[in-house]
Amino acid sequence: MEIQSSAQVAGGPEQIYLDGLAAGRFQIQRCVDCRQAVFYPRCVCPHCGGAALCWFAPSGEGVVYATTTVYRKPEQGGDYNVCLVDLPEGVRMMSRVAELAPAQVRIGMRVSARIVADGQAVQVVFVPSGRAA
Q: Is residue 71 domain-shared with residue 118, that is, in the same domain?
């Protein structure tokens, strides 16, 4: 586990997270003091106020907590889903489920994380468990 203060990297913890994704690493933070997982990247633990946060690789597994469909015209890319995924480490992420039509994404669905490049952005998306590369 690596402890890095926001002063060590221009752009702070968010930049560390994004740089990790660009390098093919999905990592979240854990507070050294209270041991709680933290996501979205922060400088201070939202649970206890501790300033020592380390990075670790989560399991990559999750469960869809909530989902909705964003409707767009086909020429704008078509419909897509936005979902909240609970990770077993105790954090909730906003993302999307890939490889399924938006209407097929269900609350309680087990999913696995995948890092994808979408244009110039690199992000974590989820796929139904058993489909992760």
A: yes
